[in-house]
Design goal:
The structure is a single chain. The chain is mostly helical and about 300 residues long. The protein has one domain. It is built from 13 helices and no strands. The termini are far apart.
Length: about 300
């Protein structure tokens, strides 16, 4: 029991550090690709400290509640996802619980931003919710394929089976859901070509345009958690997790660099382009993978 309590305290701190590191790494790598020097990797942490010391303006109780709901939802999801051998709440719920709680983050931002009464916020929120609907459909097929093949909803059991029998990504029926997950991963973590909800050049960062001070800091922290969640889920579901935190982190870096390359190459989608893409190729590939898991020969 004591170990679980310690993990519940330590886990969010570790994931926060990793998420902030990924944000700093993305800025640095993008700058290098664009032949710029770029900010230091520690710049996101410096920004967070500065935000907490600045005065924040609230637009009401729903504004405050939405930010807290979004952050709390991400933290709870984290506790269900194994990180090496650290998995505080993995025995209390399965993949379906994770699927439901992941909706809290966009809903919280929608509630909070709705109090801002800024046109850019409304546009950004509508884009964020539409994008969530877009990737939730293939994501659901991916989760169903995983649960059908391994005959369990427990993510720890799925990781354990893979460590004994091999990674899911290299099995015939689950190869297609794995590819589908890679195709929707930029949408889950809000990176190009799916950064339509923020789009600084179009709608001034959308939902974040009215955030300042500690509220802006909390939104950035939630984004760091979202980065970790999207990448860690793929590692656990398709790459067998890891027996230790170091190896798990190494897998995460490799996957994140791949996503960064996509981010650097592709331009931003329009909303209708994003939905058409998400409901076409990833959904089709994941659905075919789900059908294959029902065929006895596999």
């Amino acid at each position: 029991m004591v170990i679980k309590i310690i993990q519940i305290i330590v886990y969010p701190i570790l994931t926060f550090i990793i998420g902030i590191f990924f944000i700093g790494l993305s800025r640095k790598m993008m700058a290098r690709i664009q032949r710029r020097y770029g900010p230091p990797i520690t710049q996101p942490l410096i920004d967070l400290i500065r935000f907490f010391y600045q005065k924040g303006i609230s637009h009401g109780s729903i504004f405050n509640f939405g930010v807290i709901l979004s952050l709390a939802g991400s933290i709870v999801v984290l506790l269900f996802i194994p990180f090496g051998r650290m998995s505080p709440l993995s025995s209390s719920g399965g993949l379906l619980v994770i699927l439901y709680i992941m909706l809290f983050a966009p809903l919280g931002i929608a509630l909070s931003g709705g109090e801002g009464a800024n046109p850019n916020i409304s546009i950004g929120i509508s884009r964020k919710l539409i994008l969530s609907l877009g990737y939730e459909v293939p994501f659901l097929f991916i989760i169903l394929a995983i649960m059908t093949y391994y005959k369990t909803t427990s993510i720890t059991e799925i990781v354990k089976i893979q460590q004994e029998a091999g990674w899911a990504l290299f099995t015939i029926p689950l190869f297609l859901p794995g590819i589908a997950y890679l195709l929707i991963l930029p949408a889950i973590i809000g990176m190009r070509p799916f950064d339509i909800a923020s789009a600084p050049q179009e709608i001034s960062s959308g939902p974040m345009v009215e955030y300042s001070g500690k509220y802006l800091a909390l939104v950035h922290i939630e984004h760091a958690f979202t980065l970790f969640i999207g990448i860690a889920l793929f590692i656990n579901l398709f790459l067998g997790g890891a027996t230790n935190i170091g190896f798990f982190f190494l897998k995460m870096i490799v996957l994140f660099v791949i996503v960064l390359i996509v981010n650097a190459v592709f331009p931003r989608y329009r909303v209708e382009q994003a939905i058409k893409y998400l409901w076409k190729w990833p959904t089709l590939i994941a659905f075919v993978g789900l059908i294959l898991t029902k065929i006895p020969i596999f």
